[in-house]
Amino acid sequence: MNKTTSTSSPHDLKSQLRDLLLPSFRKHRLRLFLGLTALILVDLLQLTVPRLIKHGVDALEKMTVTSGGLFRLGLMILGIAAVVVVLRFAWRYLIIGFSRLLEQAIRNRIFSHILKMDAVFFERRTTGDLMAHSSNDLAAVQMACGMGLVAAVDSVVMCVAAIGFMIAIHPLLTLLALLPMPLLALATRILSSKLHRRFTTVQELFSELTEFSRTNLISIGLIKAYTMEDFQTDRFDRLGRQYLKSNLKVASIQGLISPIATLFGSMGMLMVLYFGGTLVIKEIITLGDFVAFITYLYMLIWPMMAIGWVANLVQRGLTSLGRIYDLVTSRPVLPDPDLRPGQQPLVRPGFVLKNLTFTYPSSGSPALRNINLVLGPGIHGVTGRTGSGKSTLCRLLARIYPIADGMLMFGEHEANSLPLAFIRFHIGYVSQEPVLFSDSIAANIALGRAEAPREEIVRAAEAAAIHADIASLPKGYDTVIGERGVKLSGGQRQRLALARALLCDRPVLIIDDGLSAVDVATEHEVFAGLRQHFLGKTVIIVSNRIKLLSMTDHIIVLADGVVESEGDHDKLLSTNALYQAMYVKQMKQDESEVYLP
Asked: Which of 37, 476, 508, 566 is the most buried (most CB within 10 A)?
C-alpha cells in the first residue's frame, strides 16, 4: 500500500492549489463569477424577507395594516421566492457544473500522467492505489470545489449580512447571541484536525481494498483451481472490517460536528429569547424587531452548521488533493530528451551493448553484468536457465528500465540521448504474458495502428499463424475475446500479440518467450512467417526450444546475468555445456522425430 503523508506544508499546499486547481478556476472564471453572483443574490433576497416580516408584524401590532397591505406583502415574499428558485437553479448549474469540469480536467491529467510513467513507477504503486486516486480522491476534491465552495461562500455572506442586520436592530443583543461562536470555531478546529488524519487512513485502506478486489477478479480462474474462494473471502472480509472501522472513526468525528454547531446555535437562541424578550417588554425594540432578530439568528444556524460541514469537505479535499499531487508530480526515472529537429527514422537500427550492467531498484544484486553484444539485422536467439537475465535484457532493449550512459547504443546513437517514443517507434515488442483487451480481435491486432485496413490485419494474422483460428470463430475478426483474452488459449493469445507487432512492421522485433505456449508445428509456421516478414531487419527471440534456436542466425546463452557463450547452433552444440544438455534432453522427449539442424 502506497503511503501518502497526512499533512502538507504551506508551500506544498500552495503548489497543489496552483498546479491542480488554478488552471480550471482561470479557464472557467466567468462561469464561476456568474454562479457566485447568483448565489449571493439568493442570500441577499432571503435576508430581505425578515425585514418584510418585521414591517408586517409592526403594522399588525399598531393595527395600521389592511388586508390589502398584508396581501401585497405576501405577494412580495412570493415574488422573492420565485426569483430565488431561478437563481438557485442558476448557481447549482454553474458552480456544481464547474466542479464537474474541474473533476474531468484532473482525471484527464491523472490518466495522461500514468500512461507516461515507466516500469519503476508501477513497481512502487499498486493498481488499486491508482484507481483510488481516480475515484475516491477525485470525488473528494470535486465535492470540496463544488458544494464546499457553495457552502463556504453562502456561510460567509449569510453570516456577515445577518449579523449586520442584527447589529442594526440591537448591538448588545447581537453580542450576546454570538457569544458561543468562538467556542464553535475552537471545537471545529480540533475536530477537523482529527478528521484529516483519519480520512487519510480511510483513503489508504480503500486503495488496498480496491487492489485486492482487482487482483482476485483477474485471477479468478487460479483461485477456483486451488479452491481458495473461502480463504480469499476471509481476507477480503478482514480488509473490509478494517475499512469499516476506519470509516466509523471518521463518522464519529462527522457525527459530532453538526450537533455541536446546533448546540451553540441553540445557546445563542436561548440568549435572544431571554434578553430579547426583556427588551421587547421594556419597549426598547419592537415586536417586529424581535421577530426579525430571531429569524436572522435562525438563518445563522445553517452557516454555523456549515462551518463544520465545510471544514469536513475541505479536509477531505486537501487530503485527496495532496495524494493526487504526489501522483502527478512523480517523475519517471527513464531519461526522455526532446526530439532533435530534423531527426529522421533509422533505416536499419540495431543494438550495441557495452559493459551493460543493470540492477532492479528492489534488488541488491545485478540482474545483468558486463554484457557486450552486437545485435544487428538478422534473427538472434537468446536462451538460458530461469533467472539468467533473458527478460531483463529484452526490457532494457525496449527501454522499459533506465540504464547508465554509454552502455547501450541504438543505431549509431547513445540510447539515453534519444526520446523514448522515437526508440519505441522502431521496436515491436511481444512480452511473455500477452496483454489483450476486452475488445474485438481486429481491434487487439490493430492496437499499434488503429487506422490499419482489414486486409493488412488479416495479413499480419496469417504471418503469425493465427488467421485460421480466427476464421473458425462465429464472428471472425469481430469476436470480442473478453478480459485479458480469456476466450482464447495461451498459444492463441501469444500469436495474437505477435500479429499486433507484425502489423506495426517496425525494423526491430523483440519476442520475449512469446511463443512458449505454441506447439512445435505452429512454431515452425510462425518462424517461417518471421523470416519472410523481417528480412533485413533485427529480430530477437527468447526461447529455450532448441529447434527454434537452431533456425536463428545467432544464439546468445545467458547464465547468472552474463553472456556465457554466443555463436550459431553448431558452435554452441560443440562448445557450450548448457546448450548441449538442452539439446539432449529435448531430443529424448521426442525420439521419433529426426532432428535436422
From this structure: 508
